Amino acid sequence: MAERPSPNAPLAERQAWIDAHRRVVAVREEALPELEVRVCAMPECEQRAVARSLFCTQHHGTAVGEAGARELRQLTREMERLGRITEKEAKAHAVRKFRSRVESGDFAILFSGKMQATLARAAEDAQLGLELGALRVALVRALQEIEDPGELSTMVSRLANASARTARANAAVRKERK
């Protein structure tokens, strides 16, 4: 795997690397509207956020907006650095160090109020999606591996019931947010 070019490298070189290393990322269809419209991270501001910023045009130039942009750049660099570490022990040490920085308030603007709520909601959605995906995998495995029709029907019934409960929980969570 070719090493990622420096952020100061020519744009064509960086774009070529990105194109060569691009991974397909699947996004659930119901999550698309949330990704299209990002709102300002300033509490009680519902204006649209500026591209590549956490804040709207009004708050982007403020001291909080500039500090938030600086924290976002710093966090992005830190995540890229963590992603390049390959040794297990070194990565664990770097993660512990990063976690202590976050806990000490290094990224206070990014991980405050509205941002924490957004991260919690995303984690909750991911957990429900993961559960539903695991149930689907279990259903496929049951269909492939169980030969006894009675045992297969019982397993399919249980998995379908669990899938329905997870889907209802997911719908209830989304309805609760609206």
Describe this protein's structure.
By secondary structure, the chain is mainly alpha-helical. It folds into two domains: 11-111, no CATH class; 116-177. Helix content is 67%, strand content 0%. It contains seven helices and no strands. It has helices spanning 11-21, 32-36, 57-60, 63-84, 88-103, 113-145, 149-177. α6 (113-145) runs antiparallel to α7. The longest helix has 33 residues, at 113-145.
**Measured on Cα atoms, how large is the radius of gyration?**
22 Å
Q: How many separate domains?
A: 2
Taking all residues together, what is the mean pLDDT? 76
Number of strands: 0
Which segments are poorly predicted (pLDDT under 50) over 5 or more consecutive residues? Answer: none
> In angstroms, what separates the terminal alpha carbons?
44 Å
Number of H- or I-type helical stretches: 7
Biggest sheet overview: none
Give the SSE string: HHHHHHH
The helix content, as a percent range, equals 55-70%
| Anisotropy-based shape | extended
- Counting helices, strands and paired strands, the structural category is mainly alpha
Strand content: under 5%
